[in-house]
Structures are given as structure tokens and as C-alpha cells.
Amino acid sequence: MDSVELKKEVFGSKDASSLVDKLRATFAGGKTKIYEWRVAQLKCLMKMINDHETDIIDALRSDLSKPVTEAFVSELAMVKSSIDFTLKGLKHWMKSEKVKSTITTFPSSAEIMPEPLGVVLVISAWNYPFYLSLDPVIGAISAGNAVVLKPSEISPSTSSLFAKLLPEYIDTTAIQVVEGGVPETSALLEQRWDKIFYTGNGKVARVVMTAAAKYLTPVTLELGGKCPVFIDSDVNLKVTTRRLIGGKWGLNNGQACISADHVITTKDFAPKLIESLKHELEKFFGKDPMESEDISRIVNLNHFHRLKKLLDDDKLSGKIVHGGQTDEKKLKIAPTILLDVPDDALVMNEEIFGPLLPIVTVETLEQGFEALRSKEKPLAAYLFTNNKKLKEEFLTKVSAGGLLINDIALHLANPYLPFGGVGESGIGGYHGKFSFDTFSHKKAVLSRSFIGDASARYPPYTPGKLKLLRALLSGSFIGIIRALFGL
Ligand code: NAD
Questions:
Q1: Which tens digits make up the pLDDT trace of 353-371?
Q2: Of the candidates 227, 231, 244, which has an alpha carbon nearest to the alpha carbon of residue 365?
Q3: Residues lining ligand 1, Cβ inside 6 A
Q4: What pLDDT does 23 receive?
Q5: Which of 21, 197, 280, 297 has the highest count of CB atoms within 10 angstroms of its CB?
Q6: Average pLDDT for residues 210-229, to the nearest whole number?
Q7: Residue 44 annotated among the catalytic residues of the structure
């Protein structure tokens, strides 16, 4: 099957339906389940990245003016290490896991057998358009599924690069790309899938989940939220500041689901932190950050206006302590720090997803932990401190998709940790083996032989049989002996 054949003016319901039928036929043929096929596809993905590194970096530059180093580290290298990790673990992951049997099923053997779900849909977001598209696809392939990738239309260069390159490298009878926006995604969502993996905002997640409900299709929803950064006074200020800058403006200029949304610190410490931020920001991005090549631009005019509206809010009058410059033509907004923003300011009531950083002051950080309980659970929460007791309080009191102490976003780079949200920040998780699990069904298998066919489980029921069953089910060895010998 050639993907060009599927690219028509408008990709509608009929196209989506025939695409799913074709992939279903491939899946039914069984080749996606074969270990060698999975490995071959993953290796082809790796080859595609190696052959086209410059094209991929150019696409990311065109979509977001992502600095080359950032594009390489946070997109290409992430995908490559995900492929490597999967290739190393896959044979083992695919094996059935032997588990114990119990007296109730004696004699028997029991195992958990992972099997692919079938034909799955991956809908991706624009901010890390390469990584967020391919990482779930790696999970889907590794688990033996056929898959359709729908990249984001908001990052059109990366999307069209996928449509061009993927068919040159991977098996298009099982893996397809569909480009497009709302109409194309809606056509896809009308179909029956065995899993939908969606990355994006909570509003569209509800559209996805509603569509999935029609066929009881399971979903993984990778969403966002307002990730707080708690900063104690007992820290290495320079390291904290550098990591905060890296985890805000160094992550796609704040356009990242796990970037620092706002800082919560104590009244006394805020001025020191702000001074340090100003100093290090200049070292990172120069005297005029609007001219820096080392910072991404805002993705498009819609998002620029969304951020401008947050910045122009009357409630922010006198609150900008650093930055604030904007350039609509270049879609640039400078790293901007806001201090003591009122709770009802727009910037405190939606995910910022951009270069504005409010600093909220509290009497104690413990109060900040408490205050978080009344808010939606974020995708990540961060704490900078040397204080052991404070760390413990943070770990037990704060609920978020993931927690990280003394850094920002880095938990995402550990494939031994699941990555995903909780509550409003998402459902399910992935990365490493968790990606394989997300796209697998864990089939329970119990095997018995024909021996040991205890008559106690069959009618006619007698008080003696009931006594024996009671003893068996309560695991009482003496009870079993008594029942067997009528004692
Ligand atoms: P987006 O605009 O790219 O949308 C995501 C996908 O949804 C796209 O493929 C788009 O075509 C599709 N879509 C949009 N409207 C639709 C509709 N009405 N019906 C069907 N499909 C539709 O991305 P976005 O939503 O702006 O992404 C930003 C959000 O995603 C933020 O909240 C961010 O925190 C979150 N995010 C989460 C993660 C994560 O891994 N948890 C990663 C990146 C972004």
C-alpha cells in the first residue's frame, strides 16, 4: 500500500474507514506480531533519523525556530534512545511472565501473556512534533500493533516530513501517516480503533474520549497542566537558577508540557532568586534575548495572541519585573518574570505554555503544598531544596503525574519511570517498557492437566464437601485433613 494513494484533497470518513480496513487486514495476517518484523521497523526508523538528521532539524527550525542543539537533544536523541532501549528490552518484554498458582487452581500453571491490541491511532501535538509523534509509535510497533500516526497540523513542516519519509522506510501495509487538522482527525476518530493515544490539551482529550466511548476503545491521554516549581531558601542558588532557566526558556521557550509554569517561593527568598535569574538569563541569552538564536519562537500567531492576552491582563500592571518585550512579526516573546501576581490574573488560571514565569510568594513552602490540593493535578511538580524533611512533605503531600527534586523535566529522560498525568493532566503513561505495556493487552492464561479433578467442586453438594471447600479456600491445611478424613 502506498501512502500517496491515501493523500487526497480532503481525507474523509470513507478514506479513514478504508485505511483502517487495510491495516486490520495486515494485522489479521499476523506479521506485526513477529519479533523480527517489530525489530526491522524500529531499525528502519533509526535509519530514517540517521539519514535525515539535517532535514528533521530544518523542519523543527521551520516550525518553531528550535535551536539545533535543543532540537537534537530533546527530539532526535530522545527518539533514538527510545529505539535503542526498546530494541534491547523487546525480546524479554514479549515473553510471557510465569506467575504463581494457588491451592484453588491446584494443579495448574499460570502466566501473563502480552498481546498486541490491534490497530491503534496516535494523535500528536505540535510542541515536540518529532519526539511526541514517534515515541508512541515506537511503543505501538514494539507491542506488535498496526498504527496510524496523525501529527499536528500546527507544526506543518515536521508533519509533511513524516508523510514523505516514513513511507520510504517503514512497512506501509501496517504503519501509516495521515496529515491534517480537525476534519481529518474527526474522520479518523469516527473509526473503530483498538487504542487511541492522544497528546494535547484537555478540551480535545474530551472529544477523543467521547469518540472512543462508542466502541469502548481504551485511551491514553497525555495532557498538561500548571506545573509548579517550589523553591526553598536552602538551595545552591546558582544551580537552581540555571536549572530553572533550562526548564522554562530552554524547553522550547516554555512551550512544553512539563516546563516550569510558575514558581512558588518564600517572601524573603524571592528577591535573591529574581536577581540571580536576571544575571543568568543574560549569560544564557545575551543582553537582548529577542535577538538570541538559542531560544525558540512562539509557534504561531494564535498562540502569540493567546500569550499576549495573558501579558496584557490589567491585573499584571506593575508586576513585570523582567522582560515583557514582544515582537509579533517574528513571533517572539522575551523571557518574562512576574512577581506577586494576584490569584485571579489570567496567567494564574490557565496553563501558560510560553515564556512568562510568575513568581508567587508564600510564608512557608508547606503552605504552598497545601494550596496545591485545591487545584487540578499537574503533569509534574518540582521542588528545589536541601531540606530532607521538606522533601518528604513534598513527596507525600503533592500529587502530580511525576515529581522531581532539584531539577526540571529530567524525569522524562529516565525510561525506567512511567511518564503520564493524573486527573486533569492525563490518563495512562508510557516510555520504556511502559510504552510496550500501554499498547499491549496482558492476557491471563491458566493451564491445567486432566489430573486432580476434585469431586468436591461438583454436585451433589454435601456438608462434607462444603467443609472441605471451606478449608481449601481458607488455606487451612489441618482443616483439609479433617474434612478429608471426616474428623
Ligand atoms: P495541538 O493543537 O497540536 O493538538 C493536538 C492534536 O489534537 C493535533 O494532532 C490536532 O490536530 C488534534 N486536534 C485539535 N483539535 C481537535 C478536535 N477538535 N478534534 C480532534 N482532534 C483535534 O496541541 P495542543 O493541544 O495545543 O497541545 C498543547 C497541550 O498539550 C498542552 O496542554 C500541553 O501541556 C499538552 N502536552 C502534553 C504532553 C504530554 O506528554 N503529556 C506533551 C505535549 C503537550
A1: 999 999 999 999 999 999 9
A2: 231
A3: 123-127, 132, 150, 152-154, 181-182, 185-186, 199-201, 204, 207, 222-224, 257, 351, 353, 379, 421, 426
A4: 98
A5: 197
A6: 98
A7: no
